[in-house]
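Worked example (supplementary).
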Amino acid sequence: MTLKTKEYKLRIPSQTDNLELIRYFVGRVAEKVGFDDEDVGKIELACDEACTNVIKHAYSDRSQHQSLDIAIKLDYQKLTLIVTDHGKGFDPQAIKIPDMKEYLAELKVGGLGIYLMKTLMDEVTYDIKPGLRNQVSMVKYFINKKDSMVVNNSKKA
Amino acid sequence: MENFKIQRSDQDRISTLSISGFLDAHTAPKLEEAIQSLIDDGRYQIIVNFSDLTYISSAGLGVFMGFIEEIRNKSGDIKMCRMSPKIYRVFDLLGFPTIYQIFDREEEAAARFGPVKA
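After joint prediction of all chains, the assembly is encoded as:
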C-alpha cells in the first residue's frame, strides 16, 4: 500500500459528551491505517486529553457553543493528529510537564493530561495564535523509531 | 446514552463500586458523586472493581487523586481490582501502581482491609 498524504477531518461542538464520538473517529482512522490495538488506544487517549483541555480551558467561559476541529493527516511514515480551537490561547512555554515522582508524592490533581499526551505520542507541538486559533499537533510514527530503519508497509492489521 | 455505570454494594465496613463503560471528562463527575456519597456516609474502605470498564482518561484518574488523601486521613483507602490490561497500562504510565494497591480479584482487595487503625 502506498500512502500519499491523506486527511480526515471532524468539526464537532466542544462539549464533553462528544469525547466518545471523537475517540471513535480517531480510533477507527488509526485502525484503518494499520496501528495495532495498543497504539490505537494511545492515539485515542492522547486525542481525548487534547480535546478535554480545550473543552475545559479554551472555552471555559461557556458563553457559546464553540466548535473543535480534529484533523488527521497521514503520510507514508506517520499519523499527525491536529486539534484546533478558536478559544483563548495560552503560553506553551508556561506548560509544565509534571515530574511524576513529585506529583505522586504530593497526590496532586490535574496536569496529568499533558503528561499523558507527551508519553503516548512520539511528538507533541503547540502553535498558538492568540485570538485566531490554537493548535496542538501530535505525531505517531508507523514504525517505532527504535525498532527498525527499514520501512515496511506490510504492517500487521 | 448510558455510557458509564456505577453499582455500589456495601458489605460490612467495605463498599465496592463496580464501574463499567467509559470513564472520561464527561462521566467522571458521576464517579465523583459516588465517592462523595460514600464519604458522606462515613464509609472510607472502598474497593473499585474495574472489570467492565473499557476506557479511562486522566479525568477519571483525577477523581481518585482528588479523594485519596481525605480517605486515607480517615484511615480508609481506595483499593482497585480487576483491571483490563488496557486500563492497567494507563495507570502504569502514570506510576499509579506505586500509590494504589491493585489486585486481580476483588476478594484479595477486601482481604487487605485490616482492622481500622487509630
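Two points are worth noting when inspecting this output. Chain A has one domain: 6-141. Confidence is low (pLDDT under 50) at residues 146-157 of chain A.
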